[in-house]
Write a structure and sequence with these properties.
0% helix, globular, mainly beta, five-stranded antiparallel beta sheet, seven-stranded antiparallel beta sheet
């Protein structure tokens, strides 16, 4: 478990940029964006080799203990032992995830007006966090 941020206050039109290092022997890492640890609007989970997925980004949402349907992205711009820069742009009805050379959107299934919570877990070391 990496750092946990609360009271971020990210609203539509704002972005959160995350930079960090991926472990050389990484299996997977997670970034959660939501209201708190129980209401996760975006569970962002790049998997090098975990849960039967290889080089796949799996996204989901969680309401208390209930997970939604998994969304998979085939584009995988991460490298073990490399650095990563990921930007989450909050829109009215979804979140746009900006990766190196690729972007995709994930719906705001929980209809969160504000994203206050962010955490990282797994084989990722957070180096910087910035928002605008």
């Amino acid at each position: 478990q990496g750092p946990v941020c609360t009271n971020l206050g990210l609203k539509p039109g704002q972005r959160l940029t995350v930079k960090g290092k991926i472990a050389p022997n990484a299996k997977s890492f997670v970034m959660n964006l939501g209201k708190d640890a129980t209401l996760v609007g975006l569970h962002f989970n790049p998997r090098f080799d975990a849960h039967g997925d290889v080089n796949t980004i799996v996204c989901n949402s969680k309401k208390v203990e209930e997970w939604g349907a998994e969304h998979r992205e085939a584009v995988f711009p991460f490298q073990k032992g490399g650095t990563a820069e990921i930007t989450f742009a909050v829109n009215q009805n979804d979140v746009t995830v900006h990766l190196p050379g690729h972007q995709f959107t994930f719906p705001n299934r929980l209809n969160l007006p504000v994203f206050d919570y962010f955490d990282t877990q797994g084989d990722f070391t957070l180096q910087s966090l910035s928002w605008e």
